[in-house]
Every structure is written in C-alpha cells, then in structure tokens.
Amino acid sequence: MSQIKAYLYSKSDNYPDTKSDFAFLQEVFNKANIETVRVQSLPKTDKAIVVICGGDFYTKEHVIDNELSKIDRVMLFVTSNETGQFQDSQISHKDIKFWMQYPFLKHEKHNKFPLGAPEFLKTNLPEYAEKEYDVFYSGQINHGRRKELAEVLPTIDNCVFNLTDGFMKGFEPKEYYQKFIKSRIAPAPAGNVTIDSFRFYEAIELLCLPIGDIKNAIEEDFDFWDFVFDGRIDIAKTNNWNELPKIVDNLLSDYPQNMHLLVSWWIKFKRDFAIKIVREYNEL
User: Which of 75, 131, 207, 263 is least buried, going by the fewest C-beta atoms within 10 A?
Assistant: First the structure.
C-alpha cells in the first residue's frame, strides 16, 4: 500500500505548516506515517486528505471549492481559523468530511480537533526539573477573563506570575518553559477569540495541570473542552477565576497522581486521533 499523503493547499507561500497551530496535526500525521506535501493545485484523484488555513480562504471559499472538485472523496482539515470566519457551508462537494480546528458551536456536526502545543515548544524544550512552584502564569492581560485572573494571582501561595500587555512580551521562550516545567498548575484563561490556547497543551506536555476556562473573552459561557473532546477529558475548569485558590488546593491534594493520569490521557488521545485519521481515510 502506498503512503498516505496530506496535501497542504495554499495559493501563496502561506502554507498550513508555516503556522504555529499546525504542530498538533504534524505530530499526528507523523504518528500515522502520513506524508505532507505542499501544493498550489490539488491533484485529480479518487480520495485525499487536504489541509487549508481557513482564515486565508474567508470570502474565497469558491477557490478551494473549485479545487476540491478534482477529488472524488475528501477529508478537509481546516486550521488557522481562530475567528471561525471560514464558511464551510460554501463548500459544495458532495462527499467531504470536515475536520475543524478552533471549532465553534456551528461546527458541531463536523469532526473537531484541538490547537495543541506550538512547534517552538519542541525547539525550546527544557530539561526535566523538580517541581518548585504550585502555580505559574505568564501572559498578556488583554480582556476581562484575564483581568479577573490577574487580580487573584497575587493571593495564591507559591505562585509565579508575569503579566504583560502583549503576545510574546513576557519571558524568553527558554525561560518561560523552564518556569513552566518547574510548576504544578497552570491557569489557562480564554484566548482572544476562542477559549482554546497553546498554554493549555504546553502545560500537559510539561507535566503540569492546566485549568481550563469555560467562559470566552466576551464573557459567554461555553464548555469548549467538553465540546472539542466529546466529554472525554477530566480537567479542572472554571467560569470564575476568583475560585482559583480553592481549585488549586483541590488539585494539589491529589498531585501528582492527577497529573500523571492527564498526561497519559493526552498521549493516548494523540495516538487514537492518528489511528482515526487512517481508519477514516481507508473507509473513504
């Protein structure tokens, strides 16, 4: 059997694998022995995996729709679509399965997958260190959810925090990850548009327990974690960061057993996700 290919489609040099949010897919493609191929024109074939940066095709859905018509059966992975603007309803293909990163409620009928940790975690991966800090947060304070968190962080014992006014304005990556791996718990407040964030998965990869937000940046309640993982993830979550001291105490009472269980679950999730992709491709 020939190796499965995933076609990374773009009309410019802005291919999906140039974005930080492609790292999760790259990892599972590697696990599944799926070759990634950059293309500016899709091949004519009976079935294929195609990956696009959804945001790049907002208002240009007709372009990808026309390209997809060359393929009889399609698995379309939509990445880099944080604002959810890509209009999947504009795709007319009759035999297509969507896989959505940054899923919103309107994507409920589609396959969903998480943001994952960024590629630069691998290039800045710290040596393992003994845990020193109970809580760690370094990030920008740019909306209400993060402001609420910022107000309570100084009340937490053995907490290291660094509050900034912009993305990537905090610690240098190596120092950031070094402090992360020395920590037990990491609050993961909502991102600017979607609740999902690199921080959540960086925590798990660095043997740290994330606390997931279940309210977005405009104060709408949404249990994103149950939605994207179909209720199969057991984590601490909150819609009120004033609860942080109590949540931290509860997590520390069962640490590190709870951390080991979550890390094991994440490893299995990535493995199972790779298997699912191959199985569904073979069933096309």
Answer: 131
Number of domains in the chain: 2
* Residue 214 token pair: 């279940």
Handedness of CA 265, 269, 271, 275 (dihedral sign): positive
Q: In what order do the strands lie in the sheet with 133-140?
A: 159-164, 133-140, 183-188, 209-213, 236-238
Radius of gyration of the chain (CA): 20
pLDDT at 167: 65
SS3 24: helix
- Domain hosting residue 188, numbered range: 120-253
Chain centre to alpha carbon of residue 13: 23
Q: Which residues contact 276 (CB under 8 A, 6 or more apart)?
A: none
Give the separation between CA 182 and CA 169, rounded to whole angstroms.
21
- The pTM of this model reads 0.95
- For residue range 192-219, what is the model confidence (pLDDT) as tens digits? 999 999 999 999 999 999 999 999 999 9
Q: Reduced to 3 DSSP states, what percent helix, strand and coil does the chain have, rounded to the nearest 5?
A: 40, 25, 40
Q: Chain-wide mean pLDDT for the chain?
A: 96
Same domain membership, residue 144 and residue 108: no
The CATH code of the domain that includes 107 is: 3.40.50
User: 1 pLDDT band (50/70/90 cuts)?
Assistant: low
